[in-house]
Amino acid sequence: MRVETERLIIRDFQKEDYKDVFEYLSDNLVMEYIEPIFTEMQTKGFIKKYGIERKRIFAVEEKSLGKVIGHVIFHKFNEPLEYELGWILNRKFHGNGYAKEASLALFEYGFNKLHLKSILAETVLDNKKSIATIISLGMKNSNIYKEDLPVWIITKKDYENKKNNRIL
């Protein structure tokens, strides 16, 4: 996959990306709501398994820097035309709208190229910044929980309505 925005390239992972990825997966603040921090070996294995082999995560590269600043989770969820979306970004790049920019690009790609019916996101309730981003994307709380995590959803119809009304 390759999706471009004004500032970002969302692309398949390459083995060489592990140094940039290790920078944020080994950061306690970044991983606070996700998992324990990763070692260098775990980072390489994670990229190989989920990025290169299974294509469940994709690199988020900052164009002007040529640096991987994070990754997005984007893969089939429960139904064939339903995908999960998530993101993890290097702390140095928090607060710059990159998560929203990448997500909106993936909405466009998912709904118009993959013909998805819906896109879902999940996070722990304590992760207020991610929840704020999820809400700003027009996603609604579905009242469904996956492994005790609340799930937010946006359908293709809701996305198109918000886009046409310039809400996104």
What is the name of the CATH superfamily? Gcn5-related N-acetyltransferase (GNAT)
Strand content: 25-35%
Q: What general outline do the C-alpha atoms trace?
A: globular
CATH top level class name: Alpha Beta
What is the rounded Rg?
15 Å
Give the helix tally. Answer: 5
Distance between the termini: 23 Å
Q: Which range best describes the helical content: under 10%, 10-25%, 25-40%, 40-55%, 55-70% or over 70%? A: 25-40%
Task: Walk me through what this model shows.
With 168 residues, the protein is of the alpha+beta class. 33% of the residues lie in helices and 30% in strands. The protein is built from five helices and eight strands. β4 and β5 (82-89) form a beta hairpin. α1 packs across α2. It starts with a strand and ends with a helix.
